[in-house]
Design brief:
The protein has about 250 residues and is an alpha/beta fold. The chain has a single domain, classed as Rossmann fold, CATH 3.40.50.150. Belongs to the methyltransferase superfamily. tRNA (adenine-N(6)-)-methyltransferase family. One of its GO terms (biological process) is methylation. One of its GO terms (molecular function) is tRNA (adenine-N6)-methyltransferase activity. Specifically methylates the adenine in position 37 of tRNA(1)(Val) (anticodon cmo5UAC).
């Protein structure tokens, strides 16, 4: 169990537990202005719940392939103050269509949040749920991009979290496809100032109708700890203060 200030995450039935980098994504992604949000691979429901806390006007669809994880996410949502604004769907994102997609104007999302599986050729776990959560077998980057291009509004933002090598691959695929998705903001996360970046958080948007591509993004850097490896930095505390009980 992981208690936040406004909700609690039960995680005994999910392979992907609450982790610091996912919490940073949920606190950093600038989703306050959107009305319709999508969380791809919601797991425990963490990102959907963080988004609901930050944006009181948001209606959120949270999609999860694993049946046990989807049920746990639904239970976490039901026990939260945001149950009327989050709907959990047990589905592969490749087959997911928004509930209003039967209308003449299919719903597109203002923001999409994704903490995707990223291991490609790594050693597999005996646990199928762990493999599904961590490895790209059932959600390759190419499939993820097809889904994002189908579901993201023309002026929407896709927020994604990956290790640097995998993010480099995703950037290339996003730039090569059509319509092109390009980074417009990013945050690099490291344990402390003497450690290398271990996660990159990027906001992607479509290029505009004239094909203009924004210049290189100057990433912000966030260290979780001071050099002692135990004391949280002021920047990390400020970012997570709305969520973490210890702050």
């Amino acid at each position: 169990m992981f208690r936040f200030k406004q909700f609690t995450i039960q995680q005994d039935r999910t392979a992907m537990k609450v982790c610091t980098d996912a919490c940073v994504l949920g606190a950093w992604a600038q989703i306050e202005a959107g009305t319709y949000l999508l969380d791809i691979g919601t797991g425990t429901g963490l990102l959907a719940l963080m988004a609901a806390q930050r944006n009181p006007n948001a209606q959120i669809d949270a999609v999860e392939l694993d049946e046990a994880a989807a049920q746990q996410a639904a239970d976490n949502v039901a026990a939260s103050p945001f149950a009327d604004r989050i709907t959990v769907h047990q589905s592969a994102i490749q087959q997911f269509y928004p509930p209003s997609a039967v209308s003449p104007s299919p719903l597109r999302y203002d923001h999409i949040l994704t903490n995707p599986p990223f291991y490609v050729n790594s050693l597999r776990s005996p646990d199928k749920a762990v493999n599904r959560a961590l490895h790209t077998d059932e959600l390759p980057f190419a499939d993820l991009l097809v889904a994002v291009r189908r579901l993201l509004a023309p002026t929407g933002t896709w927020w994604v979290l990956l290790p640097p090598p995998e993010m480099a691959v995703l950037r290339q695929l996003a730039a090569a496809g059509s319509p092109t998705l390009v980074p417009v903001t990013e945050l690099h996360l490291r344990h402390h100032d003497q450690k290398p970046v271990f996660r990159q958080l990027v906001g992607f948007r479509f290029t505009d109708s004239s094909g203009n591509v924004p210049g290189p993004v100057n990433p912000a850097i966030l260290a979780i700890y001071e050099p002692d490896g135990r004391t949280y930095t002021a920047q990390f505390r400020a970012l997570l203060q709305p969520y973490y009980l210890i702050f």
